[in-house]
Amino acid sequence: MIKVLFFAKLREQVGRSEMQLPALDSGSSVASLLDAVIAELPEAEAVLRQGNVLAAINQEMAPLSATVADGDEVAFFPPVTGG
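Given the sequence above, the corresponding structure tokens read:
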């Protein structure tokens, strides 16, 4: 299983803070996981495909091309701004 977390505005827009998905095929990417999330939550596609969604695997920033493995925790969140 892969634990998927949604933070900040994404959590509000997706309508949940987390979900569990079955492990993907070996060598699958964060982008593939994003596709699986959208397959489960098609209403969230517009939010998750904004092009500026960031990801972290096991609390470390990761590009969408990074590999996801069974047991990983993957978080999606909007870009952080500050001032």
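The chain has a mean pLDDT of 91. Try to locate this feature in the token string yourself.
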